[in-house]
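Blinded run. Sample ID left blank on purpose so nobody reads anything into the name before looking at the predicted structure. Input follows.
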Amino acid sequence: MVAALELYFDTDATRRIRVLWEALESEGVQSMLSLLGRRHRPHVSLAVADRLDPETVAPALSGMTAAPPLRLRFDFAGQFVGRVLWLGPAPQRELLDHQARVHQRLTDAGVAVWDKYTPGAWVPHCTLSMRVPNPLMGTAIRRCLEMLPIEATVVGAAVTDHARGIAYPLPSGTSASDATPLPAPEPGSEPESEPVPGSGADSVPGSQSSPGARPRPAGIANVEGVG
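Blinded prediction complete.
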């Protein structure tokens, strides 16, 4: 299983990315819209690991805001090996510094984050599709360029485990009224995977309490999706 610490966007940016997913679907490209019973939520992952226990991550990030109200501007489309299509935000020192602080906190807590998510190697991205057919890649990129730029404000964060249907909300610098809620999953929905930057592999964000760990803190809810 694989876990992720995800950042979520304001309602308007989330809506526009969903519209882009629909446009890709109309061209025959399976987008993230099709995953998890259409409950996938656009996001940027700050960290991905084999395991992220909320009981470890929350104390590790104590005293800091996991989701500061950063302003992002998605200006370009990118492709990882494996035909993974994504939107990339314009380079921003505040975002890189925040990710580096989160990574350091997790490292200090003994959490082993994947190498692709270490500062200097991390590529901020919002996944659109994990398997674009080669003949449709040009069409898919054109659809992205028609939608860009997309401006977004970070409004929330969570430790997620899509395989187990779990999300643990983390402190946000935005009022709750600005955040997009996490709906309950549909029974029987199949977990899907998230791309690993720079590789053809995919991952499923996941976290689970270790044997003997204290009960999971209140606030864990059903997760909406990966990306």
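Unblinding after everyone has recorded impressions. The radius of gyration is 16 Å.
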